[in-house]
Amino acid sequence: MAKLVVFYSRADENYFGGAYRYIEVGNTEKAANMIAAATGAELFKIEQAEPYAADYDTCIEQAKKDLQAKARPELARTLGSLDGYDEIYLGYPNYWGDMPMAVYTFLEAFDWTGKTIHPFCTHEGSGLAGTERKIQQTCKGAKVEKGLAIHGSSVDGAKAAVEKWV
Fold first, then answer.
1. What is the pLDDT of residues 84-106, one digit of tens each?
2. For the Flavodoxin-like domain, which residue ranges apply (predicted)?
3. Which of 133, 140, 125, 8 is nearest to 66 (CA)?
4. For 47, what's the count of Cα atoms within 13 Å in the CB-facing half-sphere?
């Protein structure tokens, strides 16, 4: 059985420990690439059909509004099935103490019975914030392992921590 790294990540303007900075590759995507390299897993990026704004302040307001509404944004594309994958590494930024709502859109589309999920997130101080429990509640029948939280502003130096975790 194969491994899969599924992740939601956002480039554009991001927040790094008190300052805004434009990035071309999102922090979670950088971590996902490290995990794929360490495990030989395939990659799948969760993308919204209507992405959030490029500027950070507008983006977080959009994400907060979706969270409050428990929205399930439409995805640009999805996988037909998770058949053939037994281990899934699930990555996301921590938005308002939770996963982006598009991650829930993805998770709710599949039967997770018999799958093992390894959650990982990027954050600027909130850590995993209970998302492991939320994944377990959403992905009935899956085994959810202990997750990895990476400070987004430190992701470029996180290779050793990622390799130890996997």
1. 999 999 999 998 889 999 999 99
2. 25-165
3. 8
4. 11
Superfamily name and number for 2-165 = Flavodoxin domain (3.40.50.360)
Place of tokens 């990895």: 148
Q: For residue 30, give every residue at least 6 positions away whose Cβ sits within 8 Å of its Cβ, in sequence order, or none.
A: 9, 155, 156
From 78, 128, 86, select the one nearest 103 (Cα to Cα).
Answer: 78
Closest CA to 152 of 47, 13, 6, 51: 13
Kindly indicate the confidence band of residue 17, based on its pLDDT and cuts at 50, 70 and 90: confident
Bridge partners for 22 per DSSP: 13
User: What pTM was computed for the model?
Assistant: 0.96
Q: How far is CA 2 from CA 56, 61, 83, 104, 143, in A?
A: 36, 37, 9, 22, 16
Give the residue from 91, 146, 151, 145 showing the smallest Cα distance to 121. Answer: 91
Sorted by where each begins, the domain ranges of the chain are: 2-165
Distance separating alpha carbons of residues 3 and 98, to the nearest angstrom: 24
Encoded amino acid at 142, one letter? A
3-state secondary structure of 52: coil
